[in-house]
Design brief:
This protein has 151 residues and is mainly alpha-helical. The protein is 46% helix and 4% strand. The two termini are 29 Å apart.
Length: 151
């Protein structure tokens, strides 16, 4: 999958997820922050592309590949240190994209009738009630650590 195809899939998912994410952030009392140079879709795309690459460390990938070869795709690229600081801000949207990709919904066959979000919130940092969009019968059974709360 090329960077452009990956970005289109991630951006389509983000455009559906963003209103729910922003509403949950405001409901928890977090203030709306001003937009940065890189949009969340671009950050997630770079992170996923790293995992698809042959690089062993993210620093080498970002400095040797992204800043050199992907500058035209991401014209407002930030420094490595700033990018690393931005990663926690896209943790939940990236997990939501991964959940959709696992169900095959991130490949362009998006259902517009009802959202199929399955958000994984580590350590309950965001109240699960604000992101609950699936009924209890529809929720999948997730295996793994009890430190993660799944909806």
């Amino acid at each position: 999958m090329s960077v452009l195809e990956l970005f289109c899939a991630v951006d389509g998912c983000w455009l559906e997820f963003a209103p729910h994410w922003k509403a949950s952030q405001l409901a928890t009392g977090k203030q709306c922050l001003r937009p940065g140079q890189l949009c969340p879709s671009e950050i997630i795309t770079i992170l996923i592309h790293f995992h698809q690459s042959h690089y062993r460390t993210f620093k080498a990938y970002y400095i040797e590949h992204v800043q050199v070869h992907l500058r035209s795709e991401f014209p407002l690229l930030v420094s490595y240190q700033r990018f690393v600081a931005l990663i926690p801000s896209v943790q939940a949207p990236m997990l939501a994209y991964a959940a959709r990709a696992g169900t095959g919904l991130a490949q362009g066959s998006v259902s517009l009738t009802r959202p199929h979000w399955r958000c994984v919130i580590p350590n309950g940092s965001v109240p699960i009630v604000s992101l609950q969009l699936m009924s209890s019968e529809e929720r999948p059974v997730w295996a793994g650590s009890s430190a993660f709360h799944c909806t």
